[in-house]
Amino acid sequence: MIKIDGLTKIFNSNGHDIVAVDNIDLTIQPAEFVIILGTNGSGKSTLLNLLAGSLVPTAGSIFFDQKEITSLKEYQRSAFIARLFQNPLAGTASELSIIDNFRLAALRSKSRKLILGNTKSFEEKVKHKVSLLQLGLEEKLHQPIGSLSGGQRQALTLLMATMDNMQLLLMDEPTSALDPRSAERVMELASRFIGELGISAIMVTHSLKEAHRYGNRIIQMDQGRIIKNFNESEKRQISLQQMIEWFA
Ligand SMILES: Nc1ncnc2c1ncn2[C@@H]1O[C@H](COP(=O)(O)OP(=O)(O)OP(=O)(O)O)[C@@H](O)[C@H]1O
Ligand SMILES: [Mg+2]
C-alpha cells in the first residue's frame, strides 16, 4: 500500500515559485491500477517523479507498506518501484543486447542478483518470459535493444519491470510515442501484468480511450491538486462519452 501525506513540490524558476504538486493526500492499495488525467503542466509527471524518488518533495511524506520512504534515494526505491516512460529509449541501454538489458534490470535489487548466479538458467528464464510477449523477440536475445521498434522496446521494458517482486509500476504516457496497434499491445500487457502480479500501478495518459478501458480508478489533476477521484465502481459506470464530456 502506498500512502501520500500532504505531498508538495515547489519549483523556483527565475525568482518565482511554481507549485507543481500542491498538498496531495492519496492512498493506493495493492492491485489498484490508477489512471491519472490532467492538462499539460498539472503536475502529473512531478507526482510520479516524487514517488520514484527522482525529485525531493518540498513538504509531505510518502509511505510504502507503513514504512516511510520519503528520504530513500531513487536507486534504493528502484528495488520495488519500476518505471515506464513516454520515450521507449528511456530506461534501456540501446547498445546492449536484450539479454544484457535484462541483466542490468536484474542488478537493480539484491533479490535480483540471485537470478544472476547461473547464466544459463537466467537466459532460459528471460527467454521464456520474452516468448510470452508473442513478438518473436525470444530469437533476438543477443541483438542490441536499439535495433528494435519503439513498441517492442516498451513491451520489453515492461517485462523487465515486472520480472521480479516489483510492487509499484509508474507509467508516464507510456504509449504516446507508439502506433495504435503497438500502443494497444503494450496496454494489454501492462494491464495483464498488473492483474496477475497484484501490484499497484499508476499511469498518466492523455488518451481518454485508454483511461476508459484500463485501470480501476481515475484521478484528475489540475494545478497540482487532485480535483476528481473515481473509485472502481464509479469508474465502471462512466461511459466513454461521459469521459470525453467530463475530462476533455
Ligand atoms: N524541473 C523543473 N523546474 C521548474 N519547473 C518545473 C520543473 N518540472 C516541472 N516544472 C513545472 O511544474 C509544473 C508541473 O509540471 P509537470 O511536468 O508535472 O506537468 P504534467 O502534468 O506532467 O504535464 P504534461 O501533461 O505536459 O506532461 C509545470 O508548471 C512545469 O513547468
Ligand atoms: Mg508530464
Describe the protein in words:
The protein is α/β, with parallel strands linked by helices. The chain has a single domain (2-247), classed as P-loop containing nucleotide triphosphate hydrolases (Rossmann fold), CATH 3.40.50.300. Helix content is 36%, strand content 26%. It has 10 helices and 10 strands. The chain has helices spanning 44-52, 74-77, 98-106, 110-114, 119-131, 150-161, 180-197, 208-213, 232-237, 240-247, and strands at 2-13, 16-28, 33-38, 59-64, 67-68, 81-84, 168-172, 200-204, 217-222, 225-230. It has a 6-stranded mixed sheet, sandwiched between helices. The chain has a 4-stranded antiparallel sheet with strand order 2-1-4-5, with helices on one face. Helix 7 links the parallel strand 7 (168-172) and strand 8. Helix 6 packs parallel to helix 7 (180-197). The radius of gyration is 18 Å and the shape is globular. The model has no long low-confidence stretch (mean pLDDT 91). The structure holds adenosine-5'-triphosphate (ATP) and magnesium ion. The site of adenosine-5'-triphosphate (ATP) has 12 residues, from strand 1, strand 2 and helix 1.
